[in-house]
Amino acid sequence: MTGPCQRDGRIGSPAGLGFGETRKPMPHRDHHAALVREIRAHDHRYYVLDDPLIDDRAYDALYAELRALEAAYPDLATPDSPTQRVGGAPRADLRTVEHAVPMLSLDNTYSSADLAEFGRRVRDRLPKGTEPTFSVEPKLDGASVEILYRDGRLIGGSTRGDGIRGEEILENLRTIRSLPLTIDFVGPITLRAEVVIFRSDLRAINAERTAAGEPPFANPRNAASGSLRMLDPRVVARRRLRAIVWAVVEGEALAATHSAALRRLHELGLPTTWPELRICHSLSEVDSAIADLADRRDGLPFDIDGCVVKVDRFSDQMSLGFTAKFPRWAIAYKYRAERAMTRVRDIVLQVGRTGTLTPVAELEPIALAGTTVARASLHNGDVIRELDVRVGDRVGIEKAGEIIPQVVLVDLAVRDGDPPPFVMPNRCPVCGTPVERRSGQVALRCPNAACPGVVKASVWHFARRFAMDIDHLGEVLITELVERGLVRDVADLYDLAPATIAGLSRMGSRSAENVVSAIASSRDRPFDRLLTGLGIDLVGPVAARQLAEAAGSLSSLLAWTPAEVEKRLSGVAGFGPKMIESVRAFLADPRERALLQKLVDRGVSRGLEATSEPAAEPLRGISFCVTGELSRTRETVHGDIVAAGGIVHDSVKKGTTFLVAGEKVGRSKLEAARGRGTKIIDEVELERLLRDGP
Ligand code: IVH
Prior knowledge:
Blueprint: H1 27-48, H2 56-72, E1 96-98, E2 108-109, H3 112-125, E3 134-140, E4 143-150, E5 153-159, E6 165-167, H4 170-173, E7 188-196, H5 199-211, H6 220-228, H7 233-236, E8 242-250, H8 258-267, E9 278-280, H9 283-296, E10 304-311, H10 314-320, E11 330-334, E12 339-351, E13 356-368, E14 371-377, H11 381-387, E15 394-400, E16 404-410, E17 436-437, E18 444-445, H12 452-463, H13 475-483, H14 498-502, H15 509-521, H16 527-534, H17 541-551, H18 554-559, H19 562-569, H20 577-588, H21 590-601, E19 623-627, H22 634-643, E20 647-648, E21 658-661, H23 667-676, E22 679-681, H24 683-692
Helix pairs in contact: 1-2, 5-22, 12-13, 12-16, 16-17, 19-20
The chain binds 2-(butylsulfanyl)adenosine.
């Protein structure tokens, strides 16, 4: 390895020496400095340049080495060490701070005529003979923040808030690994940046949340802004946030133009919009830069909702100034989200494994942004009321964050008559039990743990690939098993005999035997997979692995007292009070205890020695693009790939390993794959890869 990653780098004199003292450099200090330099260089390559030199495992080894060194010599763990990104205890609340310069917003346009008008206004207001230069850069769809560096140290940060005052979030910003804790610059720099989550990271987070029974984030923006304001930096650190700088508001010493200032920051190791920025000398160049960015939009790893056109020279910006609301030197050109109109055939209620009732719009199938959409979640009664969506309505569908289809409007002008409004029921549509609302939540829940709707969803979750991974146990079979009373909880699966299943519809004796043997072999799944499959609230695959390690086996978990739950989990990274309370409540519930005992009696799970190692992820580091119609939803397939350690790309790019092609695949995707040497596989082959690896 060369350059910044050399391991034998030396620092100047060791810290802590008094005047006149001479001492040989201490080897562990040198070792520490070299490790810190190397880790920073890798963070920069990975998070800023998107061009890692080493794989995750090699990085983790460096990090572990640094931790071990700091454990042996605690005075080395200074606040700017990479190990100190995640600070101490959670805070009780966020402090409010005033921005150095108010954070205004931008005037918006959707048309190139408005853009021409903007250009004319700029020219008219600038002194005669001044020809403005413009910059065009992406408008990132995230949460805006202020970031302060003083003499090269990251010392402050706040959310936008009301534009004048925001909330102090330095500890959360410090967890963002793309943001250097120190830079080589003397003097004050105040920056504006967007905090975003890459689309692929959001998929992984959502797969994890779904597995933990939490609602997925509808889009990266909600996920980023919610995460930034969390009180526990340890949880923030797991949200894979990135910051991308789009303006310098203090730091005149950097450069004379906006673009040069961003380039300088980029060279100092900060993530900025510079790599995507274009400098334009005329409005027609601005138009082509906008069109060019629109073409590249899908290939960017983050969501953008348009671009921002700025007058590039700071001196021109100063003479143009601001209106009461906006800068006169910048304008946002927004892309319209792709939208499709279709009709609501029905509104049905889904009962989830936690009993949550989710209304879902069944739609006349419609093509939207590369997939066919036939269903869209309506989330809860409040959303339905706000939209006033009714059966038979013509509705507009958009993909939020290009992932989850959402109903965004109802075309009231073409409503047929006066269909009755949809009302959330008082009773569970499956078992008739009166529904409940947990305090502070909008969602309604069926509290009956024996409700066939809840049991079906629990069995489906238990059998999923990232949990107990039971082949041949599909939705139709689960429904029949539950409806006939053959399966009342997941432990009943292990009592099923081939003869019982062979009597069910579409089941011969061969397939019945396959089902029973798939269920039997799931007994050997590692303990953490069982814990994931049980669907304890807030406990997804990662937390399940930690819980499995803390408990060792199912029988010892069962023996934990409530005080022990607290004692054993409170030191575990990422286990906040809510998660601990959820595990405690789970273990205190007599029904859950009976279920765990039933599983122990049936010989399910072998204990800690079988805990999944991260290395067991069969698709670690392999990238996929999924296209066309598959037998399962795109989201489920993405979730399975991510849970197996794989990476999902939105489009076929250089380096995409596999294109998974379903039915009705567009020719351009196939051609892109062929041109880039990406292997084209079908769904059956994907299933095999998920099981056995490549
Ligand atoms: S420049 C004085 N550049 O858009 C305001 N803003 O509608 C100058 N945004 O609050 C804003 N990407 O959060 C600018 N490249 C970019 C941006 C950007 C995203 C957001 C920002 C701002 C909002 C304005």
